[in-house]
Design brief:
mainly alpha
Length: 17
């Protein structure tokens, strides 16, 4: 279940932008 976390981090980064 590592992919799930990866996507979450990516979304978080985009939201931070």
């Amino acid at each position: 279940m590592t992919h799930f976390y990866s996507y979450f981090i990516l979304i978080s980064m985009v939201f931070h932008l």
